[in-house]
Amino acid sequence: MTSQNLTDEQLVEIIREKNQELYSEIIKRYQIKLSHYLKKFIYDSDELEDVLQVVFIKSYKNLYGFNIHKKFSSWIYRIAHNEAINYLKKNFRGQISLEEVEYKIIDEKINLHDDIDKILLKKKVEKYLSDISLKYRGPLILFYFEQKSYQEISDIMHIPKNTVGTLILRGKQILKENLSQRKNYEK
């Protein structure tokens, strides 16, 4: 069986037992996913790469602490989430950037607009998503852009599953209110 056919958890078990070089497979599997996630918090690509490298170093160093009976993706996303929060606490200077496909996802799922020009709305969503407290922004990004389940978000953020739903609902309400207030202000 090749390493590509193994689950993340099986791969971690092999890495811990006998073949640390296989960690490169973990990096291959998660580099794009975690970059995509971190991009919602870290705008500068060089800084994003630095944080991503820290995520992989920390996950490698703590691999023996991972419980192979749990989901590896939630564990590594938790490390990435913590590093994004640490970065923001030290360096936050700007806003996040949504890709076109992500904008379509949030537009469809949250029903953000009726008659607002889509390009202007996209910029507003980016700005107001950046302005939303990390408490709500993290769950919104994980749910809508990373398509994580409530359980996975609960595992990543170390909060109860019911709290995840509450944070997503409140985050959506804040985002809608901010966009609505801005829309009314511009009239």
Describe the structure.
29% of the residues are buried. The longest helix has 26 residues, at 161-186. The chain has helices spanning 8-17, 23-38, 45-61, 72-91, 100-110, 118-131, 134-145, 150-157, 161-186. With 187 residues, the protein is mostly helical. The chain is 72% helix and 0% strand.
Task: Give the structure's gist in a few sentences.
By secondary structure, the protein is mainly α. It has helices spanning about 10-15, 25-40, 45-60, 70-90, 100-110, 120-130, 135-145, 150-155, 160-185.
Write the topology of this structure.
Elements lengths: L7 H10 L5 H16 L6 H17 L10 H20 L8 H11 L7 H14 L2 H12 L4 H8 L3 H26 L1
Structure characteristics:
2 domains
In the CATH classification, which architecture of the largest domain applies?
Orthogonal Bundle
Question: Roughly what fraction of the amino acids lie in strands?
Answer: under 5%
Looking at this structure, what is the CATH superfamily of the largest domain? RNA polymerase sigma factor, region 2, helix turn helix motif
What's the gyration radius in Å? 18 Å
For the record, give the distance between the C-alpha atoms at the N and C termini, rounded to a whole number.
63 Å
Task: Give me the CATH fold name of the largest domain.
Answer: Rna Polymerase Sigma Factor, Chain: A
- Count of domain modules: 2
> Helical residue percent?
over 70%
Q: Report the principal-axis shape.
A: globular
**Count of strand segments:** 0
- Sheet bearing the most strands, described? none
Secondary-structure element pattern, one letter each? HHHHHHHHH
CATH class of the largest domain: Mainly Alpha
